[in-house]
């Protein structure tokens, strides 16, 4: 028998662009008031199919109030890293985190038209094995599944800082915290890495009391949300540099490094500048001396609006902010 890596693993972004397109897409279904369970919908992406563009299957969870967020695969191109030992894993299981329940579902997609719950990781196990809560973002990494969290321990998520924990990509057992030395990192949101260059970048949003019941206006206007990004030695799990954009650049969220592993730059979106309500994109890069630098390269102006049509938080500005919350970076970058 000849072992070959999963055909959906690609050594470069260019090869991924040349690969066949997906036949199915997996989309979160949310219950805004938690009256119904959240679920995963399967959308037909084949233009030649009669069901093209429609939901062809759905799986509802057995629990209510999970509030699904950034789910991901058990394995991906990172498995091709020579350090991983996982090159022959199958990209088969979706890891779906519930930010409000701290519950994690492992969904078997072997048959996209008959999804099944393979395993459920209850919140008590997450709390006990990681000291974290509010899992938010899943990335399949070279040595396991990386899970970003927004809360620390305790019922309110304020017992210690949030961070990243790692799960075994075959058994789905929780291994434990990623960080060995977190430095100044005390909030968390997104993260991504460059495997050949052995670094990771993470960003900040806020702590559970600052988002679970909506944005806290007083905290936003007093610049108490996250405004820094953190650079890590990926293998040593050590924060090597923290970069503060400036306290008025509130909610430094999505991290997007260049897909080309030879490039040492990337982007971070900032939701709002509290001095003028602009949204912003910062570009970060590694300088010749090896330290990381950044510069604001894109701004998006707010839209003027009659204060009578605005919530109290915005009436003094007389404008509606753009609120940059995501970045979709082309594979040819």
Tell me what you see in this structure.
This protein has 333 residues and is mostly beta strands. The protein has four helices and 21 strands. The strands form six sheets. The protein has a four-stranded antiparallel sheet. The mean pLDDT is 94.
CATH architecture, by name, is 7 Propeller
Which percent bin holds the helix content?
A: under 10%
H/E element order = HEEEEEEEHEEEEEEHEEEEEEEHE
Uncertain stretches:
none
Mean pLDDT score: 94
CATH class annotation: Mainly Beta
Rounded Rg? 20 Å
Largest sheet report: 4 strands, antiparallel
Termini separation (Å)?
A: 38 Å
Strand order, biggest sheet?
Answer: 4-5-6-7
List how many beta strands DSSP finds: 21
CATH fold-level label: Methylamine Dehydrogenase, Chain H
Briefly note the structural class of the backbone.
Answer: mainly beta
> Number of DSSP helices?
4
């Amino acid at each position: 028998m000849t072992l070959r890596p999963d055909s959906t693993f690609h050594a470069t972004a260019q090869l991924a662009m040349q690969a066949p397109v997906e036949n199915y897409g997996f989309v979160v279904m949310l219950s805004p008031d938690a009256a119904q369970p959240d679920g995963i919908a399967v959308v037909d992406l084949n233009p030649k199919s009669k069901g093209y563009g429609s939901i062809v299957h759905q799986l509802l969870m057995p629990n209510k109030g999970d509030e699904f967020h950034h789910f991901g695969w058990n394995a991906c191109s990172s498995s091709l890293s020579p350090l991983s030992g996982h090159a022959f894993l199958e990209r088969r299981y979706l890891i779906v985190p519930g930010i409000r329940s701290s519950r994690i579902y492992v969904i078997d997609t072997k048959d996209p038209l008959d999804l099944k719950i393979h395993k459920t990781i209850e919140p008590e196990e997450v709390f006990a094995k990681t000291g974290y809560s509010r899992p938010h973002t899943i990335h399949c990494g070279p040595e396991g599944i990386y899970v970003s969290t927004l809360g620390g321990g305790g019922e309110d998520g304020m017992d210690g800082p949030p961070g990243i924990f790692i799960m075994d990509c075959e058994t789905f057992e929780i291994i434990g915290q990623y960080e060995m030395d977190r430095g100044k990192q005390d909030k968390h949101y997104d993260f991504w890495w460059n495997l050949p260059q052995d670094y990771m970048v993470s960003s900040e949003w806020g702590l559970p009391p600052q988002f679970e019941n909506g944005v806290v206006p007083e905290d936003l206007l007093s610049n108490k949300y996250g405004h820094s990004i953190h650079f890590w030695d990926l293998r040593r799990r050590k924060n090597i540099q923290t970069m503060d954009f400036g306290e008025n650049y509130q909610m430094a969220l999505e991290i997007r490094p260049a897909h080309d592993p030879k490039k040492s730059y990337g982007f971070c979106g900032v939701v709002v500048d509290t001095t003028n309500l602009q949204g912003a994109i910062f570009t970060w890069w590694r300088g010749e001396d090896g330290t990381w630098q950044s510069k604001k390269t894109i701004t998006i102006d707010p839209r003027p609006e009659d204060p009578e049509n605005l919530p109290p938080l915005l009436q003094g500005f007389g404008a509606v902010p753009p609120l940059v919350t995501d970045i979709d970076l082309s594979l040819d970058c």
